[in-house]
């Protein structure tokens, strides 16, 4: 198929994969969108304008070669498209599912700016790699050299840790991943609901790593099951990729009431239930929305995950409180639309003020306050202010706080007081090399950046693998030189 296939946006409308109806999808945790058919994927890829300055690529944290693999997909050269996509990303089908493309590549698409509707990059990316898995094009992990005399320890198996594990294993190192949970994937497996990312998509990635020689140590918490100092002795290089999991407290009157829960506890319980685990807190109703009035507090992607999970669990009513307006919410607008389609009610410019209990001692109502947007702060974002005399009350037998996450106190947890952190509690790491204050210890992902996007964690996993490889090579050369000098003296 010739180059004339491209630039079809002039006569071909933007199209996304068909979504299942809200009535259908609100009763299960399967992904809501069907995959493109081959012809449709090729058609949508052909809408790319192949512009001289590809802003989609510039605004992708991974700098994916988007125009090039769109062109290959439009020409029906799907295996080549996959190989080009996989050259810069260790998990393109995952990013294709959960990246906020409307804020990144697609939001920067030139034809979006011209009013024709962006190329549906994420859906094509997902299609390409799903096809690669189906056709057997995703090859087993094969080390390109043997550097197994040097070993690397990775603390955490989220996207940053998994990416670094893959790329360091490919370079030939012995790689050990230490994970405190019983499965690999971090928030990919336990935090993100199946309707956005079905768990088999993650599990086939981690199986490939294990089959390629990456050694996983599950149910291993650093600081209790094994010491940080021991890991430093055991490995030639160590990567901290723990992510950030400590929920930010709301601190309102009634926050301690039964029925007021943290978003991550709620999502983990739901995901574990879907994976077939025994989850007592779900079975008891503590972390189950069935038959309840649910209020979710927050406007990010985690809040959207919670409201849509509550719908699927059979909540009586689901309301999202967010203190700013829709235009200023941090979460994906596409996720907000999906939530609205499924029956979630949004109270914009509204913030909780207090929680009150019912006769059984559990939370029963939320008192909320109407807000308005005031003057911008130092970041330029307009700050919400309360509207006097505009309080209102909502029934709520389950309140889910989705206010974001902070890092755990790793110097204390790891008994490593010399591990430098920032004033926000994140690990202080060199911006280019990702090295920490401790020799041979590196850090990447949310534990350095703060709570952020999966695609940024993949990017930093890729970059820290390169940095660790360079450092380990230097260490090996130095050791070899010392050994040679010793032999000469002898």
Automatic annotation (TrEMBL):
Residues 152-461 form the FAD/NAD(P)-binding domain. InterPro entries: DPD_II (IPR028261), FAD/NAD-bd_sf (IPR036188), FAD/NAD-binding_dom (IPR023753), GltD-like (IPR006006), Helical_ferredxn (IPR009051). It holds the Pfam family Fer4_20. Residues 25-136 form the Dihydroprymidine dehydrogenase domain. It comes from the Bacteria. GO terms for molecular function: 4 iron, 4 sulfur cluster binding; metal ion binding; oxidoreductase activity. Keywords: 4Fe-4S, Iron, Iron-sulfur, Metal-binding, Oxidoreductase. Gene3D superfamilies: Alpha-helical ferredoxin, FAD/NAD(P)-binding domain, NAD(P)-binding Rossmann-like Domain. NCBIfam families: gltD_gamma_fam. This is NAD(P)-dependent oxidoreductase. It comes from Sandaracinobacter neustonicus.
